[in-house]
């Protein structure tokens, strides 16, 4: 059969194209193992069921296609808040632009520094949550990342971390092809906020592994850079302990290809996970895919998925979301909504919501809608003197706002909403 | 102020003529009422004046102070001074009432080349007007009309009218779905806006609203035309005898 051989040929091409870093005893075995796993599963291919709506070939092509830089004079995201700033330029940690990596209740190292040590606590997590997240659906691009990424942060939160860790990914070279891999451990009762912003590189592959112990909290807000030609694949693997909280929100505007995979396993009772996203796409080049897999493996846990996409001029939005409830995960409360707002007839929203439930005492609901701006509402606004374009933007913002309000920190949510508002006003000219 | 001449309108989607030559002239400061049975074209008149999609004007004209309304976008008509109070105000989740009001007020000011209201001035103004209509801070904060009762929605319409200060107000069955107290409150709000210059067109099924908003002229509409006009006594006649007598008389 031709298809499988392409998958495996591509995997070999990837393995030989990227060098596996060596030298760190604690990570060598993990990386060797990752390469073996990648060989076995093959590279993603558009004929894979999991890539049915998104063609991954631009994410696996060697070399990566160039992407023009996006020049703008806006204030960088999250600049107005008190945060610990870390900068990666084309995927490489830049100490000159970064704050001192120290904070109260948190130890932060670069992955490079951590790899230089003989032993490290990250050994138990690095590549481990990623490997766990391969079942039942393979995610080869994350495995590739585990095998070869040498940049990233290793973060250990031991208590309440007051300042968010704000990572900015600067795209500096048109031909950059970058991978970063972060490992985050949130100890019992600890709490941390991770902010990510920027395009990262012409092609950017990021993996975040986060392990949240009992009563821990992890908050994540991400805005993906507006470079029109960038290609991005991200994976977030999270494991949640008892009464822990995980909240992640991503805003995406522009970029030709974005695939955000979020894989969450609720392993302790009474844990809560929320994953949300708002995206706005313009043009046939825009393709944005949110893929979420949440496994309930404990009692009385709650999960929420809230995704909203506004699409125009032939843009495509994809949502694949699954809730898997294992036999013992009684009292599960699972909620999932994905909505597409199409501003014209050329745009597409493709959704595949799935529930797989093996416990008998659960409440799971899911909904997926696609629609246009309501004419009566638009008329109501224009009849009050609001110009049509401005009225439409108000409705778009209101639509996206329902996802943005999933962000727990109100100041961050307001920041995101204002940013979106400003972008739309700029379009109005 | 408002002058409608021989206005003829078809529904765009179906081959159906709704207005068959409406003539209406409302002078400065006047209050006119249109009454008429269901399907006579009353609401259509209000929609066509304010520029709703779905209608095709096949003949006639409508001008506001000489300006051709039918040639304008809905937002331009609003900036020119036309206001429609909706029979069924639309609920808009996610858009705060206050944001909506401020955007509308400032959009109109901008369109007229006036300076936009500052946040402080706007707030002061809206609080003052809201108080008179018994609209509390919570209603101003909530999304536009979402979860509002019928009475609250209509009061919210009048609040918009008060904030936008139009020259020509069209009220489309503002009394529908209101109890007597709510209707009085709405009517008081409207009467407070009567200043001898602002004109009103009140569309209603029932005479009782006209007890509270006293019209100068009452028109009876039937089958897409105004078939009879008269003083306030015409509304009483409708109330006592229904439309049948009048329609038989003009037929």
UniProtKB/TrEMBL annotation, chain A:
InterPro entries: Fe-S_cluster_assembly_SufBD (IPR055346), SUF_FeS_clus_asmbl_SufBD_core (IPR000825), SUF_FeS_clus_asmbl_SufBD_sf (IPR037284), SUF_FeS_clus_asmbl_SufD (IPR011542), SufBD_N (IPR045595)
Residues annotated as transmembrane: none
GO biological process terms, semicolon-separated: iron-sulfur cluster assembly
Domain (SUF system FeS cluster assembly SufBD core) ranges: 173-399
Positions of the SUF system FeS cluster assembly SufBD N-terminal domain: 28-165
SUPFAM superfamilies cross-referenced by the UniProt entry: Stabilizer of iron transporter SufD
Family statement: Belongs to the iron-sulfur cluster assembly SufBD family.
Descriptive protein name: Fe-S cluster assembly protein SufD
Protein source organism: Paramylibacter kogurei
Automatic annotation (TrEMBL), chain B:
Top-level division of the source organism's lineage: Bacteria
GO molecular function (one): ATP binding
Keywords on record: ATP-binding, Nucleotide-binding
Keyword hit for Transferase: no
A Pfam entry, by short name: ABC_tran
Oxidoreductase is among the record's keywords: no
CDD domains: ABC_FeS_Assembly
Official protein name in the record: Fe-S cluster assembly ATPase SufC
Organism: Paramylibacter kogurei
